[in-house]
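Narrative of activities, Objective 1.

The group set out to show that a structural description can be obtained from nothing but a protein's sequence at a throughput compatible with the screening campaign. Below is one input-output pair from the validation batch, recorded exactly as produced.
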Amino acid sequence: MKNLILLSAVAALAITSPALARTKHHALKKAAAPAAPAELKWMDGPPGLPAGAQFAVIKGDPGKKGAFTIGIKIPANYSVPAHWHPTDEHVTVVSGKVAYGMSDRLNRTAAQGLNTGESVTMKAKEHHWVLSADGAQVEVSAMGPFKITYVNPADDPRPKPAK
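Output recorded for this entry:
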């Protein structure tokens, strides 16, 4: 009888725990505020993102094989069109609010919000997009080298090769 009560309690906790909530596409959870180094070197780019964002390397090297974490300052009224990465991407909101979605095209009416301290994992090769109306700062952790492929090649902000 005690085992049945304990099993019921564990099952109820697993069903109701927000940290265990999952949808078909991603996991959303409250995260502890990331601890960033006191002095980060913020720079424009990276070139795979639309102009206006700034980033800083927190740990690792996004250009090399292995784990890395970068900070991204997202300006107000900023969006990154539908894209995907070859590895999982873990995004934590450090400050502000962002919205995101899982589809082949940015769709503001279908956007899901993330507030300060919340995080989401975008699975490898999953089409997703992100935007922020008021601006935000996020931390992105993934395995390098960092690569971004836009669903619609016309959305890619990188210079096109000369023909």
